[in-house]
Amino acid sequence: MSVDVLISHVTPPLRPTDRVEYALGLMMEMRVRHLPVVDKDGHLVGIISEDDLLGSDGPDEEVGTRLQGTPVHVQAADHVFEVTRVIMNHGLTMVPVVGRDGQYDGLIRRHDLFERFAAMLGTQSTGAILALEEDKRDAALSRIVYLVEQNDVRVLSLATEEMPDDHIGITLKLDVRDATRVRHMLEHNGYHVVAAFGEEEDQDGLMDRVQEFMRYLEV
Questions:
Q1: Using CA atoms in the order 111, 114, 116, 122, what is the torsion angle rounded to 10 degrees?
Q2: Chain segment 67-101, per-residue pLDDT in tens
Q3: Domains in the chain and their CATH numbers?
Q4: 0.70 cut: is pTM over it?
Q5: What angle separates helix 180-188 from helix 141-149, to the nearest 10 degrees?
Q6: What is the chain's Cα-based Rg?
Q7: Closest by alpha carbon to 104, among 46, 190, 63, 146?
């Protein structure tokens, strides 16, 4: 899945001749801590951070004097996983999108990217959640999905994460509100279910945590 639909043109890029004071104001208005810097020909020449600006010699210093190194960027055809890797590895709140001709094409905000992940994981769909922890050698995902769906339950999404001691965490979002029957079936087949969250158990608390997480992404 490419990220071309996430490209934003609302946030304007900076110019090398823009002043530090203006750049800081734009960051505050757009709720980001990084902005792309583009030259008069439309080519990406750098990324400036809030920390870079705060370390300047004063509000009238030009943004271009704070740039260094080759700017990080992605392309519109890149997969959402690759773009996420770039953003997380470089600690960015946005990443510039550059065409094959080197022209700046817009940016992707971290907030928008994680909203896309939330949709991919079915967080807005009704359903219970099961969390499993398995040895990597025994974690046959196809068998887990097969066992679940043999109980007339559909898996809306499946996510995995690396864990210590050569284990893997598996999270299943299901299309039923009560996962008790599925949990018992998986445990009967030797799987280790570490947590189960029913759709009706604590919706208010769940929504509070989701909203808190989204606020964190916008910091």
A1: -140
A2: 888 889 999 888 888 988 899 899 999 999 999 88
A3: 4-110 (3.10.580.10), 121-217 (3.30.70.260)
A4: no
A5: 130
A6: 22
A7: 46
